[in-house]
Design a protein that fits this description.
Helix content: over 70%
Mean pLDDT: 95
Low-confidence stretches: none
Distance between the termini: 33 Å
Length: 119
Amino acid sequence: MYLSIVLAILDIGPHIMGGERVTREEWLHIAASLVAVIGVLMACISYGFATEKAWSRHVVIAMFGLIIVYATILGALNLIHHAIMRRAIINGSLFGGTSVWFFYFKPNIVAYFRELKDR
């Protein structure tokens, strides 16, 4: 995640949000802050999974929720194109929904996290 920010600062490669090309300045102004926060959340998720922490699954859902909320706010304020907003909301909803099913409804995963919580 942080490498993508460095590459954008150095103006290396295409700058894409929601599947659409944007200028370097747009990407740095709009996407870089979200990418940085998601990088922190991914590090927390990785740590939580590696150390078998029961809270780690909640952070996964929070990450996708953040993407949806961020895109919705920026779209409502007309700071991003609505096509980019829709794509972010759809992707966040699909991956977030799949994560909800996996972490909260798949029986063996639910049992695993219940056991972690009871430790």
